Amino acid sequence: MADGPTINTIAERAGVSIASVSRVLNGLPTRQDTVAKVMKAAQELGYVRNAVARSLKSRRTHQIAFAMADVGNPVYLAMVRQIQPVLKAAGYRLVLHSTDAVVADEIDVLHSLGERYVDGLIMSPIRVTEDHLRMIATARAPVVVIGLVPDGTPVDNVRADSHAGVRLAVDHLHGRGRRRIGFLNGPLDTVPGAARHAGYREALEACGLPYDPQLVEVGDFYREAGAKAARELLARRPDVDSLMCANDLIALGALDVLRSAGRRVPEDVAVVGMDDTELAAAAWPSLTSVDLGSAERGRVAAELMLARLADPEREHSVVTVPPRLVVRESTGGAA
Amino acid sequence: MADGPTINTIAERAGVSIASVSRVLNGLPTRQDTVAKVMKAAQELGYVRNAVARSLKSRRTHQIAFAMADVGNPVYLAMVRQIQPVLKAAGYRLVLHSTDAVVADEIDVLHSLGERYVDGLIMSPIRVTEDHLRMIATARAPVVVIGLVPDGTPVDNVRADSHAGVRLAVDHLHGRGRRRIGFLNGPLDTVPGAARHAGYREALEACGLPYDPQLVEVGDFYREAGAKAARELLARRPDVDSLMCANDLIALGALDVLRSAGRRVPEDVAVVGMDDTELAAAAWPSLTSVDLGSAERGRVAAELMLARLADPEREHSVVTVPPRLVVRESTGGAA
DNA sequence: TTGTAGGCGTTATCAG
DNA sequence: CTGATAACGCCTACAA
């Protein structure tokens, strides 16, 4: 762990100036024997470029940050999985931030962008506040937001269409003869919660089904919360014939409750989850789920970031990734 | 995205020298009105420290890298989940590397340590080669290895004990009256495969059960492979009363096969998985699994890293994290 | 208490 | 083609 050699060390050893060393190291035109001397010295000293000094000079860190609510959440994980290789291929490193869904932490990350330790930030905020928007607008490095931001916000934006996603699921249930479609949602003051609620109402309407508040339960995006919500909904409306769940975890909680209540899935109650995490395939019965394109969104976000870094002047893009229904056993399997 | 203000900008605006600005910003003793002037100017300019320049001077980046084979693997994910908060609490950022289990990539990461873009590296290599060991020994920044390295290697090391883990599981099955304990393993030429096989044989012996090669199936660490292995084992030995699986994915594959073969779990065949990933809790029946402490290993690795950064001279630690059996439905539930 | 000046390791300009 | 030399933004003796 000795102190590393610098271009000065090399210059001394090779008997040339640091300028020449730098030239050789950067492949600029140099006389053959100078090149040889420098390369030899560098080799012998085990020289490695100092990335920090390099960044100071070049104003590029070759690092991109990704900020999400929770590393453990499979949805974000799917994004990381796609983002990482795209950045790596372009020579960027990935700096990970987990904000625990604390808004202040997200703002912190945005603020720390000013420290210039990264060339850009990809973020997937759970809630988008005024503060977010203000800081994004004045950020000193490019930002790509995964999630809904108001139209016209000057930022590259990748959106899911959970609205359409819910609709896909409800149509599917309706198509399989279900008429009393319960809805287990997360908090309405979150972006996904609100969008999914709207999608649910609209889908019902499109199917010609009435909106019945008794069939809706609002809880949180966790398995326990899903179980609780399912329990309450079943107590209130024992005649419910299907459950649209706002994410896979909620659906797993619902499956637990249905099982112990002796309701068969899908015969008595069909269940649809959302996000199509790996849990959906692991569950029994395997869970029909709406893939909102987390993976795809991650990939697109990374690509937008690279595009912006390549051309800071380009227009802001808004990309919406379409949802896809993955049918499994919990709604009766592939038709 | 205008060019950010520097201490020079502030100095000019506040009418003081950059030294004074630096002092104020670092809380060094300064006259009150100077402090006021500087703070005001900084505020107005929206000044944020440049982390790169800072690092160049301080020789500290406050970044730690974590290199693993695959971001998508739940085992590594569990590590990331624990590492992240520990580092964050200590003021370090996490730089993520996914090497796709390519040894050359791991060596690359080790090499790039010389670039000093991070203060240290935590790595969980899939295989530990001579090259790894050589580079670790001469690395210019501290390294913590999660996984087995030869005793005496000059590096902080966190190990799992899958040997003991298999034994825990086999003892559990034996304790519940199972006598024909099948074993679905992954490749024997991998470190975990070999260790688990040895653990299985030893555990049988300790329980006074004979080792029967017919009860052992070697495949791979995937769900499909697990299903295939289970099918073959069941065909060969229909009287098997339990399955020890070398990881959770194999166990899920086995559950699929048992289900479609009409074997009840756990009544007819008990099943134990390994790694205790989130899939274990999602499965039905929920899967008894051996937690090899991925999370714990991540946490310990992060702490060892912090300890070493705090005291580079401290002795190298070797920590072995004990396995823990998590009993769920697939073996009959909590006793 | 404050300012001047040098250095962290590179890159890049500009004379020779 | 090569070698001084000046940045990049910050910190810190050292001197005033």
List keywords for this structure.
homodimer, Rossmann fold, 6-stranded mixed beta sheet, 6-stranded parallel beta sheet, elongated, 13 helices, 434 Repressor (Amino-terminal Domain), 12 strands, 3 domains, alpha/beta, 335 residues, DNA-binding
Task: Using a beta-carbon cutoff below 8 angstroms, give the protein chain pair with the largest interface and the number of residues from each chain.
Answer: A-B, 50 and 49 residues
Under CATH, the topology of the largest domain in chain A can be stated as: Rossmann fold
**CATH superfamily of the largest domain in chain A, called what?**
Response regulator
Average pLDDT level of chain A? 94
What strand order characterises the main sheet of chain A?
A: 2-1-3-4-5-11
Structural classification of chain A: alpha/beta
Provide a quick synopsis of the model:
The structure is a homodimer of 335-residue chains. By secondary structure, chain A is of the alpha/beta class. The first copy, chain A, is built from 13 helices and 12 strands.
Description:
The structure is a homodimer of 335-residue chains. Chain A is α/β, with parallel strands linked by helices and 335 residues long. Chain A folds into three domains: 7-57, Orthogonal Bundle (434 Repressor (Amino-terminal Domain)); 63-160 and 294-322, Response regulator (Rossmann fold, 3-Layer(aba) Sandwich); 162-291, 3-Layer(aba) Sandwich (Rossmann fold), CATH 3.40.50. Helices cover 46% and strands 16% of the residues of chain A. Chain A contains 13 helices and twelve strands. In chain A, the strands form two sheets. A six-stranded parallel beta sheet of chain A has the order 2-1-3-4-5-11, sandwiched between helices. Chain A has a six-stranded mixed beta sheet with strand order 7-6-8-9-10-12, sandwiched between helices. In chain A, strand 8 (242-245), helix 11 (248-260) and strand 9 (270-274) form a beta-alpha-beta unit. The longest helix of chain A is centred in the middle third of the chain and has 17 residues, at 191-207. The model of chain A has no long low-confidence stretch (mean pLDDT 94). The interface between A and B is large, with 50 and 49 residues. Strand 2 of chain A pairs antiparallel with strand 2 of chain B. Chain A binds a DNA duplex (16 and 16 nucleotides) through helix 2 and helix 4.
